[in-house]
């Protein structure tokens, strides 16, 4: 077998490229998955409630969705979030990332509000602690406050069905 | 006119860049500024992935620069600041990731390739030198004669009809 070595090398390269080239380099794996969700204390949209922290939803599995009215990808995922909140009763906490309260409110009025609570992360400080580097990003936070999964970019039906839904089901929530 | 305009714009761009660079290090003493410049040149901007946060003007890069600056002013060490960022964004923010199991292939890959190439080259050189001497058969003079005669006959047969139609 004269060509055994080149063929093995070629197959190895093909395998490497088959895996490597189908991965999205924009998706930087988050080191926070499996760790406790970083704390913050921020006001709700429009100043009410005065302060919200991750402890406010302790005991339930929630989706923490970083969004902004200036973000195109957020428009893309928005109908799906609406559907999840309305039809499946998923609890979604929205963090309005680097946005003004007025713009966020106008955006929610126009497109609908899928969020149980909306938190104003005007300066992006919570986003920095959560390792957000581009909206939309969605975290699944378990009842003990551990981050179970991070969706980078718009939520897709595939991501919901294959990655997120099993997590919610596993913790006793629909 | 064009030249004047382009010079004007170049001048404006320079002035703007200088103003921005100046604003960026405001509030730092010279020693802190050196540390700041060194750190931000080592950190990757996650939005525009092939730029450092020193080069990038993406909002996230601005935030990260401010964060680095705040922490330098607060007296944090380089290792503490790098820890702070890797806890949030992973080793990906570092242009020089630490050596560990998940980055072993990244660090050692080039050397493995070099080693593999050397092994292959050595084997190739040896393989072409030695077996060539042993597999060569002695030439049979009769076979050469026969082959020569056959070739000449074939050439003559080919030539004869080819010339006829033209002449």
UniProtKB/TrEMBL annotation, chain A:
<protein>
    <submittedName>
        <fullName>DsbE family thiol:disulfide interchange protein</fullName>
    </submittedName>
</protein>
<dbReference type="Pfam" id="PF08534">
    <property type="entry name" value="Redoxin"/>
</dbReference>
<keyword id="KW-0201">Cytochrome c-type biogenesis</keyword>
<dbReference type="InterPro" id="IPR004799">
    <property type="entry name" value="Periplasmic_diS_OxRdtase_DsbE"/>
</dbReference>
<dbReference type="InterPro" id="IPR013740">
    <property type="entry name" value="Redoxin"/>
</dbReference>
<dbReference type="InterPro" id="IPR050553">
    <property type="entry name" value="Thioredoxin_ResA/DsbE_sf"/>
</dbReference>
<dbReference type="GO" id="GO:0030288">
    <property type="term" value="C:outer membrane-bounded periplasmic space"/>
</dbReference>
<dbReference type="GO" id="GO:0015036">
    <property type="term" value="F:disulfide oxidoreductase activity"/>
</dbReference>
<feature type="domain" description="Thioredoxin">
    <location>
        <begin position="31"/>
        <end position="169"/>
    </location>
</feature>
<keyword id="KW-0676">Redox-active center</keyword>
<dbReference type="GO" id="GO:0005886">
    <property type="term" value="C:plasma membrane"/>
</dbReference>
<dbReference type="InterPro" id="IPR013766">
    <property type="entry name" value="Thioredoxin_domain"/>
</dbReference>
<dbReference type="InterPro" id="IPR036249">
    <property type="entry name" value="Thioredoxin-like_sf"/>
</dbReference>
<keyword id="KW-1015">Disulfide bond</keyword>
<comment type="similarity">
    <text>Belongs to the thioredoxin family. DsbE subfamily.</text>
</comment>
<dbReference type="GO" id="GO:0017004">
    <property type="term" value="P:cytochrome complex assembly"/>
</dbReference>
TrEMBL record, chain B:
<keyword id="KW-0812">Transmembrane</keyword>
<keyword id="KW-1133">Transmembrane helix</keyword>
<feature type="domain" description="CcmH/CycL/Ccl2/NrfF N-terminal">
    <location>
        <begin position="10"/>
        <end position="146"/>
    </location>
</feature>
<protein>
    <recommendedName>
        <fullName>Cytochrome c-type biogenesis protein</fullName>
    </recommendedName>
</protein>
<dbReference type="Pfam" id="PF03918">
    <property type="entry name" value="CcmH"/>
</dbReference>
<keyword id="KW-0201">Cytochrome c-type biogenesis</keyword>
<keyword id="KW-0479">Metal-binding</keyword>
<dbReference type="GO" id="GO:0005886">
    <property type="term" value="C:plasma membrane"/>
</dbReference>
<dbReference type="InterPro" id="IPR005616">
    <property type="entry name" value="CcmH/CycL/Ccl2/NrfF_N"/>
</dbReference>
<keyword id="KW-0408">Iron</keyword>
<dbReference type="GO" id="GO:0046872">
    <property type="term" value="F:metal ion binding"/>
</dbReference>
<feature type="transmembrane region" description="Helical">
    <location>
        <begin position="104"/>
        <end position="122"/>
    </location>
</feature>
<dbReference type="InterPro" id="IPR038297">
    <property type="entry name" value="CcmH/CycL/NrfF/Ccl2_sf"/>
</dbReference>
<comment type="similarity">
    <text>Belongs to the CcmH/CycL/Ccl2/NrfF family.</text>
</comment>
<comment type="function">
    <text>Possible subunit of a heme lyase.</text>
</comment>
<dbReference type="GO" id="GO:0017004">
    <property type="term" value="P:cytochrome complex assembly"/>
</dbReference>
<keyword id="KW-0472">Membrane</keyword>
<feature type="signal peptide">
    <location>
        <begin position="1"/>
        <end position="23"/>
    </location>
</feature>
<dbReference type="InterPro" id="IPR051263">
    <property type="entry name" value="C-type_cytochrome_biogenesis"/>
</dbReference>
<keyword id="KW-0349">Heme</keyword>
<keyword id="KW-0732">Signal</keyword>
């Amino acid at each position: 077998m004269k060509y055994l070595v080149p063929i093995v090398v070629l197959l190895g390269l093909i395998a490497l490229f088959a895996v490597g080239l189908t991965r999205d380099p924009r998706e930087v794996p988050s080191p926070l998955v499996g760790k406790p969700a970083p704390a913050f204390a921020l006001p709700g949209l429009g100043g009410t409630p005065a302060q919200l922290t991750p402890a406010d939803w302790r005991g339930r599995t929630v989706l923490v969705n970083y969004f902004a009215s200036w973000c195109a990808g957020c428009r893309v995922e928005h109908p799906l979030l609406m559907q999840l909140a309305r039809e499946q009763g998923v609890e979604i906490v929205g963090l309005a990332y680097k946005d003004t309260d007025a713009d966020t409110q106008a955006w929610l009025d126009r497109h609908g509000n899928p969020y149980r609570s909306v938190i104003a992360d005007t300066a992006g400080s919570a986003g920095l602690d959560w390792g957000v580097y581009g909206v939309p990003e969605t975290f699944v936070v378990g009842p003990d406050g551990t981050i179970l999964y991070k969706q980078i970019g718009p939520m897709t039906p595939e991501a919901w069905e294959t990655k997120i839904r099993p997590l919610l089901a596993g913790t006793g929530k629909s | 006119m064009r030249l004047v305009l382009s010079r004007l714009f170049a001048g404006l761009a320079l002035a703007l860049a200088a103003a921005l660079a100046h604003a960026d290090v405001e509030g730092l003493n010279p020693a802190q500024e050196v540390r700041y410049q060194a750190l931000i040149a080592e950190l990757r901007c996650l939005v525009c992935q092939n730029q450092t946060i020193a080069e990038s003007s993406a909002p996230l890069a601005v935030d990260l620069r401010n964060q680095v600056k705040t922490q330098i002013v607060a007296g944090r060490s380089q290792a503490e600041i790098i820890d702070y960022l890797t806890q949030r964004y992973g080793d990906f923010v570092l242009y020089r990731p630490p050596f560990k199991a998940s980055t072993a292939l990244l660090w050692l890959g080039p050397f493995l390739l070099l080693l593999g190439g050397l092994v292959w080259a050595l084997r190739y050189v040896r393989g072409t030198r030695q077996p060539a001497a042993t597999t060569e058969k002695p030439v049979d003079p009769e076979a050469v004669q026969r082959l020569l005669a056959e070739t000449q006959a074939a050439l003559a047969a080919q030539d004869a009809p080819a010339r006829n139609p033209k002449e």
